[in-house]
Amino acid sequence: MDLQELWCCGLSILVIDNNCSYLSVMEDLLLKCSYKVTTYNNVREAMPFILNNLQRVDLIISDVFFPTEDGLLILQEVTSKFGIPTVIMASRGDTSTVMRYVANGASDFLLKPVRIQELSNIWQHVFRKQIAPSTPAGNLEQPYPPPTAMAPSTPATSRTAAEASAPLESEMRDIDNNGEITDIRDLKKSRLSWTAQLHRQFIAAVNLLGDDKAVPKKILGIMKVKHLTREQVASHLQKYRMHLKKSIPTTSRDGATLSSTPLKTQDHSSRSEYFDQEGCMEITEYSLPKDYLSSGSECMLEEQNDYSSEGLQDFRWGSDKQEYGPFFWNF
DNA sequence: GGTTCAATAT
DNA sequence: AATATTGAAC
């Protein structure tokens, strides 16, 4: 089915370029690829927006701003801290320049004029970030079920330069090098909150499996979130499918996500924000409520899921206070 | 006997 | 409204 399209269609992309006319061009192209687009013509104004919308910006495309190198600023101030994939674009770039940006965490370096084909595929960097962090080397369940026909190009194999870049300290609690939550079990709440990021990981797992194979247990295995139970995944899957049924009554569409059918922004306005996009930090473990903490049951549960503690991050119980600002997930 | 799904409970 | 739990079906 079209779960994959559903996932990448609503991604929010922020474009920064001091050339306003080119900004419009980019916006137009991105909208045609059914992304949501926000534009800024300078970094000074864009930065606060980014910081205030860390959960909602999926990808940043910024001009290199040579020679001021504001592009590098974004990479260092935002991408390396918060893990938002950033693509740099420039009208020209020699190898050493490209290398420098990539080494500083750029997910890609595009030469202007950027073609729509490149943009239609740009979502892969969001996807990459999502599946790479939790897969250091051979941590992934070995062979996935043979990639379904539409499986994403190169999943999980190589880590991007971004991950190699030096992590900057973040004063936020329980955030690790890649800007992911690593431990939060002290936050008490009786129910799991499917944060945007947790949902993303869920979607990534579903996509990886393919709709037919996407059943709770397999999804759980791929998500590799400690303490997350199959039942919770099942529950969420149930809701997710319900949503799909509601928002996409027609199942057949042209496979091409680009060019032929320029989708307007309103196309996905009928869908919920939550299932379309939203993003936050990577989550890999989640804590059990109350009683399990002190008792030995916790370890038992970990083993149940057959996850080793390492390589897993922590996933938190929903809390009113999110590190990176409020969420909106109205269905 | 374990897993999934739909319904129902909180 | 969102998540958890239940119970029948597979």
UniProtKB/TrEMBL annotation:
Residues 150-167 have a biased composition (Low complexity). It comes from Oryza meyeriana var. granulata. GO terms for molecular function: DNA binding. NCBIfam families: myb_SHAQKYF. This is Response regulatory domain-containing protein. Signal peptide: none annotated. Keywords: Activator, DNA-binding, Nucleus, Phosphoprotein, Transcription, Transcription regulation, Two-component regulatory system. Coiled coil: none annotated. Residues 186-245 form the HTH myb-type domain. Residues 249-264 have a biased composition (Polar residues). The lineage of its organism: Eukaryota, Viridiplantae, Streptophyta, Embryophyta, Tracheophyta. One of its GO terms (biological process) is cytokinin-activated signaling pathway. Its main location: nucleus. It is found in: Nucleus. One of its GO terms (cellular component) is nucleus. Residues 12-127 form the Response regulatory domain. Residues 134-177, 249-271 are annotated as: Disordered. The modification 4-aspartylphosphate is found at residue 63.
